[in-house]
Amino acid sequence: MIRRLAAAALAAVLGAAPLAQACTGIRLIAKDGGVVPGRTLEFGFDLKSDVLVIPKGAKLTGSTPDGGKGLSYTTKYGMVGANAVGLPVIIDGVNDQGLYVGVFYFPGYASYPELSPENAAEAMAPHEYANWLLGNFANLDEVRANFDKVSLVPVVIEAIKQAPPVHFVVHDRSGKSIVIEPVDQRLKLHENPLGVMSNSPTFDWHMTNLRNYVNLTVTNVPPVELSDLKLAQFGQGSGMHGLPGDYTPPSRLVRAVAFTQAALPSQTAPEAVLAAFHILNAFDIPDGAVRDEVDGVVHADYTLWTSVADLKNLKWYFRTHNDQSIRSVDLAAAIAAANGKMKTIKMDSKQPIEDVSKSVK
């Protein structure tokens, strides 16, 4: 009975929308100075994402909860990245100046001000914020000076029956990173020296939680001698014993720090792109491994797609649940092909499998 009531309460809070609390973000820096952020995108149903190409000079307008118009602006920079549920918004992407923005779920903590006469002229939906950042700013210094000059108001997305509770990670070509969170109805900025990202709770809590894992090391633990008994580790990886392996946001962020800090540095940005995809394999959620049941209906989070951006060479890479082949989008080429208009590139495809049986030598 208690379990049934809890499920009903959860459905009321979330509008019976599938949960999406398992996205993980990382960042690598190559020896050639290339900055490479990457992330996984998990959700309880297929978001039908495509690559969205938005050119410089696009006229965009923020949405408001009453169906009206909020802040209007013209993009200074072209941008490329993934959208969701057919909306003209980028939820993970990069602009032609090498600024990257990723949108991550932030349930239970995201707090937006209500629309009012005082904030209407600067209002936009939370899921439109990445467009505004990518369209207007070239680097983190500019973002820091302007990030809170808009009001994110609770605009409901019909596909999920709620205003998405989200927070944002931002990287630029310098290798620096910040996290922006809507808390207590205002935007709060955190410096992100490790370049990682997860979900709830707040980012400062995650940074404090890392203190619980200061014992972790990439080096195997040496044998211990107890009287005449010598105890050696069973095998490789003893230094990482105790690393949390579950899919909760705190555990995933700890793993993201451990794996990115342990990664041997790549010589070039393209090499770092491949290294980032390998690291992100550790956060891939198989369909069915993470689930909730609401009113007898199972909602299972799984990895819809994984993306990596090369901020030096201005390329955005992705692979999807249905096709693990890595595909790339060159910003300059895609923006030129869009010819001044907002265009899309299809992301979904079928996994090719090559038969090499006759390649025997």
From TrEMBL:
Lineage, uppermost ranks: Bacteria, Pseudomonadati, Pseudomonadota, Alphaproteobacteria, Hyphomicrobiales
GO molecular function: hydrolase activity
Stretches assigned to the Choloylglycine hydrolase/NAAA C-terminal domain: 23-333
InterPro entries: CBAH/NAAA_C (IPR029132), Ntn_hydrolases_N (IPR029055), Peptidase_C59 (IPR052193)
Name under which the protein is recorded: Choloylglycine hydrolase
Keywords from the named record: Hydrolase, Signal
Organism: Methylocapsa palsarum
Keyword Chloroplast: no
Keyword Hydrolase among UniProt keywords: yes
Matches recorded under Gene3D superfamilies: Penicillin V Acylase, Chain A
Assigned protein family: Belongs to the peptidase C59 family.
Leader sequence segment: 1-22
